[in-house]
């Protein structure tokens, strides 16, 4: 009976394949074509417009700086949080639940939350004023305060995006049998050595997934930046948005989209290479 | 090398008392098994000795020095875990070298010690491999080699053979005995397998319900169990317990009279199945045989004696039918008498 029905799995998979094919691959091909053509003929004009734009260099620099600042902090925080929560017996689920609340908030809403804190009439200024640290409203999010703006955006991104990293890391940590750590302890490894020599190598697969996911998302950062800094802090996706909606130039917007995809792919390949997971060395 | 003194160790997990005051002295170089059913507290005791768990009260000293409050690494011990805990991301060589590396030993000493331990456990061909590629038995050898490489004063083993299949277990048991004898390390071995404990140990501590029921050599424990639990737990088939009435300090078994350490009431006869001999019909202890199983090496009889369940072993040369009633001769020197009230045995007759 079962041999005669080998088409059933294919039938069941078909809808998802068609769905992804229509709504992902077709737009992808169209976007790439849009980026490298001009009025239906192959052309690098869009690329040239993109590269020569005043915001191009700044948006690349900002996106990379933000990624480099945010991702390592998020990974470090997720590791610390995951390690701490593994020592907790009671209330573990509640702590994890509270830690993952930011996951349930859209990134634009997250940006708004931090805007209400950091804007001129926001909670931060109110607090600083009541403590007598400032005498009048201080602006943090303007083009005149690039460092404060960068830090504000970075903090908002870290607040918003650490939970997903933590979930992956906690899942990885849960898979490391406690006997490995106990054996290391018996043989004289300090807590730090146990972490670096035993735990970290054993959660490599989780670490790799978290790094790839979080880095790709960091290159796609937009709504939080838009809410807090507007165009004072250009990033790649923000530029794509502006070319699409403000300038109505779909070709340049597509060029940005392709650039972001290429960077994300490169980052993924980089992690696959650097944080190599050798199945032979896993439990 | 070191002796271990365990003094009145207690351990509670919330309301549950896992260890109810355990005391035990282990001599330098001795091999002692903690034997008991699962959940009896034997692994908890081992983990407290290792320093992976803290005792609620009591003291432990190793080599004359109290180790309570010391981290595991300062106790001069090594441990072999039930699931081996061989690090999957390190080669066998680095696994065996791990303890030495943590001690910051120089490369020459690491190599010397690793080669020595690897030689003892016959794992030299696998030194450059990853544990993933090894069988359970080979991983267990790596775990033992890792423990021996640091030349510990005390070696703790937590059910090290229980994850191996029966044939391999037998082979590793023999090998462990050889290796540990030549190393001369004081060893505490946790197991629920009585044949492992009997075969390996200098002495066995039978643990039951958070207490040590009896400590003694395998032969002492087998022949003269201190309690009904020990007699029932050790030996296959377990010891038979037959309650008999006492009259004037004696019990009657068939035509024979046995002096017993009680004057009246009842007493429990602890009878090892293989210590009986077949008596002519109508004589000795009467047994109704329900099932007779010829095992090749012996004949196993299951049935009842005085309406109480019993199992005895006769030589393979005997023939007994299912349902037959036979007589059994009891050797007064090889029985244990126990109190019917608390299940504690009376001291063996001199």
Helix content of chain A: over 70%
Biggest sheet strand order of chain B reads 6-7-8-3-9-10
Number of helices of chain B: 8
Low-pLDDT segments of chain A: none
User: What is the number of E strands of chain B?
Assistant: 20
CATH H-tier superfamily of chain A: MetI-like
The tally of domains of chain B stands at 2
The proportion of residues in beta strands of chain B is 25-35%
Q: Kindly state the mean pLDDT of chain A as a whole number? A: 90
Structural class of chain A: mainly alpha
Query: Biggest chain pair contact, residues each?
Result: A-B, 21 and 25 residues
Order of strands in the sheet with the most strands of chain A? 1-2
Per the CATH scheme, the topology name of the largest domain in chain B is Rossmann fold
Average pLDDT of chain B works out at 92
User: Using only CA atoms, what is the Rg of chain B?
Assistant: 24 Å
Largest sheet of chain A: 2 strands, antiparallel
Give structural notes.
- The complex is a heterodimer of chains A (283) and B (350).
- Chain A is 73% helix and 1% strand.
- By secondary structure, chain A is mainly α.
- Chain A has one domain (56-248, 256-281): MetI-like fold (Orthogonal Bundle).
- Chain A has a two-stranded antiparallel ribbon with strand order 1-2.
- The longest helix of chain A has 33 residues, at 54-86.
- Chain A starts with 6 loop residues before the first helix and ends in a 9-residue tail after the last helix.
- The mean pLDDT of chain A is 90.
- Chain B is of the alpha+beta class.
- Chain B folds into two domains: 4-226, 3-Layer(aba) Sandwich (Rossmann fold); 237-338, OB fold (Dihydrolipoamide Acetyltransferase, E2P), CATH 2.40.50.140.
- Chain B contains eight helices and 20 strands.
- Chain B has helices at residues 42-50, 92-102, 107-121, 136-149, 166-183, 194-200, 218-223, 228-233, and strands at residues 4-13, 16-26, 31-35, 57-62, 65-66, 77-80, 154-158, 186-191, 203-208, 211-216, 240-245, 250-253, 256-259, 266-271, 277-279, 285-294, 298-305, 308-315, 325-329, 336-338.
- The longest helix of chain B has 18 residues, at 166-183.
- Classes of the chains: A mainly alpha (283), B alpha+beta (350).
- Chain A binds chain B through residues 177, 179-180, 182-189, 193, 198, 201-202, 204, 279-283, and chain B through 50-52, 71-73, 77-79, 81-83, 85, 87-89, 98-99, 102-103, 130, 132-133, 146, 150.
């Amino acid at each position: 009976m079962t041999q005669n029905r080998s088409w059933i799995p294919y039938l069941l998979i078909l809808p998802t394949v068609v769905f992804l094919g229509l709504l992902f691959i077709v737009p992808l091909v169209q976007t790439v074509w849009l980026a490298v053509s001009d009025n239906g003929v192959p052309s690098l004009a869009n690329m040239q417009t993109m590269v020569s734009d005043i915001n191009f260099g700044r948006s690349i620099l900002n996106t990379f700086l933000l990624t480099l600042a945010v991702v390592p902090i998020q990974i470090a925080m997720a590791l610390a949080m995951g390690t701490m929560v593994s020592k907790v017996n009671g209330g573990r689920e509640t702590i994890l639940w509270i830690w993952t609340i930011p996951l349930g908030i859209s990134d634009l809403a997250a940006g708004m939350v931090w805007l209400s804190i950091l804007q001129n009439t926001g909670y931060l200024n109110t607090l600083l004023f009541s403590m007598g640290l400032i005498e009048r409203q201080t602006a943090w999010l303007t083009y005149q305060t690039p460092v404060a703006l960068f830090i504000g955006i970075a903090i908002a991104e870290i607040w918003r995006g650490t939970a997903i990293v933590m979930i992956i890391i906690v899942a990885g940590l849960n898979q490391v049998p406690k006997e490995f750590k106990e054996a290391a302890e018996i043989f004289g490894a300090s807590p730090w050595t146990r972490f670096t020599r035993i735990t970290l190598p054993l959660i490599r697969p989780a670490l790799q997934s978290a790094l790839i996911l979080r880095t790709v998302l960091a290159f796609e950062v937009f709504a939080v930046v838009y809410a807090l800094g507007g165009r004072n802090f250009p990033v790649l996706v923000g530029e794509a948005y502006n070319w699409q909606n403000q300038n109505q130039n779909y070709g340049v917007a597509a060029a940005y989209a392709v650039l972001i995809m290429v960077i994300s792919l490169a980052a993924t390949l980089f992690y696959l290479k650097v944080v190599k997971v050798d199945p032979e060395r896993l439990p | 090398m070191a002796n271990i003194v365990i003094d009145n160790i207690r351990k509670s997990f919330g309301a549950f008392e896992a260890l109810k005051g355990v005391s035990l002295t282990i001599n330098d170089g001795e091999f002692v098994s903690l034997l008991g059913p699962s959940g009896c507290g034997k692994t908890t005791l081992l983990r407290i000795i290792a320093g992976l768990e803290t005792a609620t009260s009591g003291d432990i000293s190793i080599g004359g020095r109290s180790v309570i409050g010391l981290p595991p690494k300062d106790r001069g011990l090594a441990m072999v875990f039930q699931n081996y805990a061989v690090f999957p991301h390190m080669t066998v060589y680095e696994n065996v070298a791990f303890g030495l590396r943590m001690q910051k030993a120089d490369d020459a000493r690491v190599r010397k010690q690793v080669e020595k331990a690897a030689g003892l456990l016959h794992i030299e061909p696998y030194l450059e491999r990853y544990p993933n590629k090894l069988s359970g038995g080979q991983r267990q050898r790596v775990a033992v080699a890792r423990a021996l490489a640091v030349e510990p004063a005390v070696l703790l083993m937590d059910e090290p053979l229980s994850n191996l299949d029966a044939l391999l277990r037998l082979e590793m048991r023999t090998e462990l005995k050889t290796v540990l004898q030549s190393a001369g390390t004081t060893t505490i071995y946790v197991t629920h397998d009585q044949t492992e404990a009997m075969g390996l140990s200098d002495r066995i501590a039978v643990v039951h319900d958070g207490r040590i029921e009896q400590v003694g050599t395998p032969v002492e424990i087998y022949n003269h169990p201190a309690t009904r639990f020990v007699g029932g737990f050790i030996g296959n088939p377990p010891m038979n317990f037959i309650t008999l009435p006492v009259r004037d300090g004696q019990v009657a078994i068939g035509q024979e009279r046995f002096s017993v350490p009680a004057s009246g009431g009842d007493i429990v006869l602890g009878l090892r199945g293989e210590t009986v001999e077949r008596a002519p019909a109508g004589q000795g202890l009467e047994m109704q045989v329900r099932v007779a199983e010829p095992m090749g090496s012996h004949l196993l009889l299951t049935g009842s004696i005085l309406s109480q369940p019993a199992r005895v072993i006769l030589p393979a040369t005997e023939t007994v039918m299912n349902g037959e009633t036979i007589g059994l001769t009891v050797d007064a020197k090889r029985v244990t008498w126990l109190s019917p009230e608390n299940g504690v045995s009376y001291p063996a007759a001199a």
